[in-house]
Amino acid sequence: MTPLPRDAFPHAVATPRLRLRKPERGDDVLLAGLIFEAYASRPDPLSQDRAVEFGSFAIEHWERYGFGFLVLEIAETTGSPLAIGHAGFKYADTWPGHWGEDLEAVELGYAIVPSARGCGYATEAARAVLSAAFAAFGVPRIGARCSHGNPKSADVLVRCGMREIEPTERQRRFELARPE
Question: Distance (Å, rounded) from C-alpha 1 to C-alpha 156?
């Protein structure tokens, strides 16, 4: 399959409560700190080194492919925006330290810092970026996955209309078909 069209995915997405924006060079440190904090409370927390790798990966995915994860900010704040996580997409065959050759599938990903959980931000952000991705790309479906130990993330995916497909030993897998 040929790569998705470069820069078709919006560089900014807004909801009534959230702003999602393309990360810029220099946001790798911000993204690393956010994902480190988001994963700290999980059974499989990220090391500081892996968080830094993710921050760099998020920037480079945009540079290589023209789409990726967006910095998630609360729009309701006065003054400087309050970053609470990220939401967006990557090629399923890419991850920090690995640039895959299979450009067949895209995957939704998101993470929210613990202090912002329970407010519906993850669901709101995921729905917004899913809508933007289907509008920008001709993909027939979008996938997502989460660990078996993260039922809250699975709940977000189901609220977004995703259905669970065959899980693996390590992960639950979900997909959403293109709306008709």
Answer: 29
Residue 74 lies inside a defined structural domain of this protein: yes
Residue bearing tokens 């970026």: 129
DSSP state letters, 31-75: HHHHHHHHHHTSSSPPPHHHHHHHHHHHHHHHHHHS--EEEEEET
Task: Say if residues 17 and 41 touch (Cβ distance below 8 Å).
Answer: no
Residue showing tokens 């030993």:
169
- Say if pTM beats, i.e. exceeds, 0.70: yes
Domain count along the chain: 1
154 is a domain residue: yes
Q: Does residue 163 fall inside a structural domain?
A: yes
Return all residues near 151 (Cβ < 8 A) that are at least 6 apart: none
State the DSSP string of 129-161. HHHHHHHH---SEEEEEEETT-HHHHHHHHHTT
pLDDT in tens, 8-57: 999 999 999 999 999 999 999 999 999 999 999 887 889 999 999 999 99
